[in-house]
Amino acid sequence: MTDTLVIAIDGPSGSGKSSVSKAVARHFNLEYLDTGAMYRALTWYCLNEKVDVEDATALVTAARTFPYVQGTSPDEEVIEVGGVDVREAIREPRISEAVSSVASNLEVRQILIDLQRRFIAEAKNGMVAEGRDITTVVAPDADARVLLTANEEVRLARRGLQLGGTQNKDQLVHQVSERDKKDSKTTSFTEAAPGVTLVDSSDLNFEETIDAVIAAVNTALGR
Ligand SMILES: Nc1ncnc2c1ncn2[C@@H]1O[C@H](COP(=O)(O)OP(=O)(O)O)[C@@H](O)[C@H]1O
Ligand SMILES: Nc1ccn([C@H]2C[C@H](O)[C@@H](COP(=O)(O)OP(=O)(O)O)O2)c(=O)n1
Prior knowledge:
49% of the residues lie in helices and 14% in strands.
């Protein structure tokens, strides 16, 4: 861990982790790490290279060798696999549907967790890292830890809006609620672990949510 500021944020799908974490990183002038993007990019690579995600050996080899580049600026997203810009492709429903199989492999997780820890250790300006297991596994010793939640109905509505109304209710439930259920088998993000501050954004707009997370961080820092 660096001696600079590290903020860990976890939460379920559609709770606002990515958008809120970027704003929090800008506020504190920190770098930003989207760990979900890593699992999504590896899934994209497997589908692209026709790696069978149910074949554990092939999956682990892919995790060890996939040519991955990720930026850490909250202002400019860089996510590349083998030089291909996959920022949009990794958000497609076909990736959301396959990513939990990849993320449930414990050896794959360890490879990506090690990579995430390296990103955090190398962040000269400190970092906001967000995902499902940052507060509990990747950086339990972070300076401030927040679990960002919102009720299921609100999260489904937010994801629906974000995808421009292209997905019906059943598709959204599949991509959000059912994925959370699968992910809950390997990571714990529905209840705040000891020392982690819960921020429920169900009744907060975007700006209010950012303010609530900044306040939680300041409290954790004793400010
Ligand atoms: N408090 C909020 N109120 C309304 N919309 C929000 C709020 N927080 C996030 N959003 C929007 O909800 C969508 C999902 O947020 P995102 O940050 O992608 O969530 P996650 O990373 O947890 O899946 C985005 O379009 C984001 O702008
Ligand atoms: N630290 C993390 C981050 C994401 N994951 C997995 C579980 C999620 O289904 C996928 C995608 O995560 P992502 O944060 O992009 O998903 P949402 O935008 O919240 O829907 O990756 C994980 O297992 N551990």
